[in-house]
Amino acid sequence: MNYLCTMQILDGQLVSRTIKESLKLDVAALVADGKKIPHLAAVLVGNNGASETYVAAKVKACGEAGFKSTLLRLEESVSEARLLSVIADLNKDLDVDGILVQLPLPKHISDERIILAIDPAKDVDGFHPVNVGKMVLGSPSFISATPHGIMLLLEYYKIQTAGKQAAVIGRSNVVGRPMSILLSANSYPGNCTVTLCHSHTHNLKEICAASDIIVAALGKPEFVRADMVKEGAVVIDVGITRVPDSSKKSGFALKGDVAFAEVAPRCSFITPVPGGVGPMTIAALLKNTFTALKRRH
Predict the structure, then answer these.
(1) What is the mean predicted confidence (pLDDT) over 264-270?
(2) Whether 220 is catalytic
(3) Which of 11, 20, 58, 257 is labelled catalytic?
(4) For the segment 206-244, what is each residue's pLDDT rounded down to a tens digit?
(5) Class of domain 144-277
(6) Domain with CATH 3.40.50.720 in the chain
(7) Confidence label for 282 from pLDDT (cuts 50, 70 and 90)
(8) Given 125, 212, 237, 257, which residue is catalytic?
């Protein structure tokens, strides 16, 4: 069967916009009732270019959804003790519903200690072990924003997942591991049989070629090629890497983990880069923040 004409783009921009518009209506209803609106506090350490871009996008999205946001900037040389103090203050601040500390942090600061310091009830990034543990158990929790966003995308497009073979490439605690758990959960989207693949996986090409759903989250540009994808597969590309390109005004091009041009014709559904998973990560973060508000009030 030729899927060239039936391939559909999973448009993260569209779905993210739909979610933000829905949240905006929810916030308007809170305002009309004289109730508190969601407040997200973001902490940015240093001036890493990518982190600046990500945080700016999150703050902008808050405004579009009617949320309140606070951006706290700390110098690159800030001590771990000072950052922990900032987080402690945010934990105690009754007006703050969600806290995110933009990663990566400078090398002299422990990511783990910072994540552990955030109140799990305000951990809208879903990185705290309490939230990770609840996710594994299938209990209500804050799910890491990128996997959560992917699940929302699958749900919006009504992608059938029950009984499907899924391959997740990459085993990071931020995307790969939680993604494998969510896809195998006894819920929709879920009920897949999942293979979690990584650098020591044998027969990776064969595993992917036999999978109905592929989630590529390893950070290697155009790693997934056409011969790794069977016709009609659903392909989710999480990667985004700057690759030098002299033909671009910026001097670089953005590439995903999937060789889109050659893989797309074989797919039933595929996410683009950019415009696929990225916007959904921010939408999921907003949903988590709204949920945090509801749970606390």
Answers:
(1) 97
(2) no
(3) 58
(4) 999 999 999 999 999 999 999 999 999 999 999 998 888
(5) alpha beta
(6) 144-277
(7) very high
(8) 125
Q: Is the dihedral of CA 255, 258, 261, 267 positive or negative?
A: negative
Active-site entry in 102, 255, 257, 287: 102
pLDDT at 53 exceeding the cut of 60: yes
Annotated catalytic residue 227: no
Please confirm, yes or no, whether 165 is among the known catalytic residues: no
What's the topology of domain 34-119? Rossmann fold (3.40.50)
For 195-205, how does the pLDDT look when each residue is reduced to its tens digit (9 = 90+)? 999 999 999 99
Count of helices and strands (H, E) across the chain? 10, 11
Query: CA 117 to CA 92: how far, in whole Å?
Result: 12
- What whole-number distance in Å separates Cα of residue 148 and Cα of residue 182? 9
Token reading at 244: 């030098």
The structure's pTM equals 0.94
Distance separating alpha carbons of residues 96 and 198, to the nearest angstrom: 38
Instruction: Dig out the tokens for 13 from the structure.
Output: 């921009």
Backbone angles phi, psi at 228, to 5 degrees: -100, 0
Which pLDDT belongs to residue 2?
A: 43
Domain with CATH 3.40.50.10860 in the chain: 34-119
Q: How far is it, in rounded angstroms, from Cα 185 to Cα 86? A: 36
